[in-house]
Amino acid sequence: MFFERPDAGESAILVHIDFPEGAEREDPQEFFELVRSAGGNPVALIKGTRSRPDAKTFVGKGKLEEIREAVQTHGADLVLFNHALTPSQERNVERAIECRVLDRTGLILDIFAQRARTHEGKLQVELAQLQHQATRLVRGWTHLERQGGGIGLRGPGETQLETDRRLLGDRVSLLERRLRKVEGQREQGRRARKRSSIQTVSLVGYTNAGKSTLFNALTKAAVYAADQLFATLDPTMRRVQVQGMGEVVLADTVGFIRHLPHKLVNAFKATLQETQEADLLLHVVDTHDNERAANMQQVEVVLAEIDALEKPILQVFNKIDLMPGVEPRIDRDENGLPWRVWVSAKDNLGFDLLLQAISERLANSLFVDEIQIAPHEGQLRALLYAQNAVLNERIDDEGRMMLEVRIELADFKKILHKASVPESRFLEVNLEHWEEPAEADSDEEI
């Protein structure tokens, strides 16, 4: 309604500027894949080098002229920048080259708009697009900057730009209210799983790392998976059997990318909440990617943004089918806990090792045992039943209550504290969430 989306198949001029190593660095090959995923048709790539972006047009005058000539030569419909442009930079470049301009953020938003299938996904994408477009409305109304005049139109009133901003603001408020409702519904689902002590494992990773292929292979689901960026947008959850743990909920989430727009992080708060609340994160990595280390770092940046970096993480090095001589295996830390598993989701290699590693990691944060309750500890028994943590109850030969309990370790400790029962009664070792050892290097020799 308030925003434009390029039609698939548009011929586009791609612009990539190399800056010194640092925050501004982008990958031209990834840029090409983004354009391909959006359905664009790249007809030319213009590259350049600068020490810093130009304040007015991002590129210099000479490069701007080169872009204009390329647009005329190829009859391009669109110029795509592999960088985030300010609204004024975008507007100034459009005026200079007389062609529509879209920056990296706008391109990613367009891909998300094409991928959204569920009601929630569409709400999230529209909200992000509207927030992005809010600062760019002025370029579409330069011919209507003055207030209307004429018979019946004189007097105080709004400019067309002001009207659009007001309507856009109203729509944003409506979308935010609807998403808050969705977030509440998701929270109810999480509380229900928590009450039933069903643990959640969330797949995270750089886009196109193979998360959906792995998800489908583990759960026998039919989530759309393709060799393209952001093939998965809408989150999907399925139950999978893990030996020793019973049913576990596996969540497939949207892939991360370098310089993921903050608008998307905010808009997808309800979806990313599944990652925040997960008991274990599976960080899926494309082992064959030359940018593997940088991509892993970017995933950690996004996890830090959503306060999920402190969650227990199990690395899953995927696509070993592309690595001759590499076999499925589990890498363990100095305490014997798995911290990395080598698999091929495409060829179903290493899944038994992966499920074993998941079971070991989840068991480290779960209390499963048969405990003895004394007659005067009725409060403890009641609290365990309130959490749906009691799987079975029996009376032994001496008349003592024996409860088979399955509950998250953190919740069990809280219940013991509330019932004034010392942890030493049931917990011999103070188990904490596992953290990756300092010597673990994501660039380990293969």
Instruction: Decide which structural class fits the backbone.
Output: alpha/beta
H/E series: EHEHEHEHHHEHEEHHEHEEEHEHEEH
Q: CATH topology of the largest domain, anyone?
A: Rossmann fold
Helix content: 25-40%
Determine the strand fraction and express it as a percent band: 15-25%
Strands of the widest sheet, in order across it, are 6-7-5-8-9-11-10
Q: Gyration radius, to the nearest Å?
A: 27 Å
Describe the structure.
This protein is α/β, with parallel strands linked by helices and 446 residues long. The protein folds into 3 domains: 104 residues, Rossmann fold (3-Layer(aba) Sandwich); 167 residues, Rossmann fold (3-Layer(aba) Sandwich); 60 residues, 2-Layer Sandwich (Alpha-Beta Plaits). Helix content is 38%, strand content 20%. The protein has 13 helices and 14 strands. A 7-stranded mixed β-sheet has the order 6-7-5-8-9-11-10, with helices on both faces. Strands 2-1-3-4 form a 4-stranded parallel β-sheet, with helices on both faces. Strand 1, helix 1 and strand 2 form a beta-alpha-beta unit. Helix 6 runs parallel beside helix 9. The longest helix has 36 residues. The protein is elongated and about 90 Å long.
